[in-house]
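Before the break, one more example. Copy the sequence into your notebook; we will annotate it together after we see the structure.
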Amino acid sequence: MRILVFIDSLGSGGAQRQLVQLAKGFQENGHEVEFLVYHDLNFFSSEVEALSIPIHLVSSNSSWKRVWKIRRFIRQGGYNVILSFLEVPNLLNVLSSLPFKNYKTYVGERSANPAIKTSFKKKLVRWPLILADGIVANSYSNVELLNSSVPFLSTSKQSVIYNSIDMSLWNPPIDYKFSAEKIQLIVAASHQYLKNASGLIQALQLLGDERERITIKWYGEESPDNSFKEALELRDELNLQSCIEFHPATREIQSVMMQADAVGLFSHYEGFPNVICEAMSLAKPVLVSNISDMPRLLGEEHPLTFNPSDPSSIAKSIKFMLSMTESELREEGQKNRSLAEMHFDKTQVVRQYLDLMQS
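Here is what the structure looks like once it is written out:
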């Protein structure tokens, strides 16, 4: 098959990372793959180019001209399948198929933004998804949110395929020694209000002297909002500099995570958190908001999951982690690795997509 994968850019986002991994998998299975983007952001470009996968940039200062160019590119490309991720590429993918097409269209629904339920605009851009041959969500919670917002979408077109992890690359570190005396926790997330750095900092304040037993290192890019500035100010106001450090985003996040005792995510919502998939693959305990499919995977009321809107709930889960022995931390990590092998293995995920496209 000739497969075009379509997304806004090859910037440093979770959706971009997943689409790059899928493109690699499609190519490894003998299919021709090409990328289509409309923003010139290149975090993953070198990785894609190293595989000789073409990247097509369609740009214009005029939004309408860009839409027209994208439609023309898709329709004249001679592709068998168009797979898109994210809200706007999904909309352009299905609208480009009108009035008829001789290829299949699949859209990746990956947003768990609660505003989908109430925002007319967010509902409106999803109504045309009825034209797609398939809608692939990366969590069951996404499907529930989508159907509650746009109830006339055909359930027969909907699938859930979790994120893809190359288990041969994301191997647990050999003989890692967990530190139950002073936990080092890694957070890999951009700085946005939804990522909830302020909630984490408030939770650390509630820990009292126990917070001296944890060091948190947060790696992520700044966003246009004021969340990072406000988080820094709150941290400094509460004198928590020794508990939480902020670092720029890094391409070496796997190495950073391998050297940590645990990985955390404090978001108010996520489609499906890729960093948690990666942490589980590395056999790390995860401290994570009870969002998306986390309760389904880890178990309802898991002591390391919490309500992200409640700093006392976050603090309670941190306290529980601090109470765990080295053997308990190791056992928790091994459970996570087993779950990752069951749900995130790249070979299995790529096969699920290809089976869907070829059905």
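The CA atoms of residues 295 and 301 lie 7 Å apart. The chain has two domains: 2-164+344-358, 183-343. Try to locate both features in your own notes.
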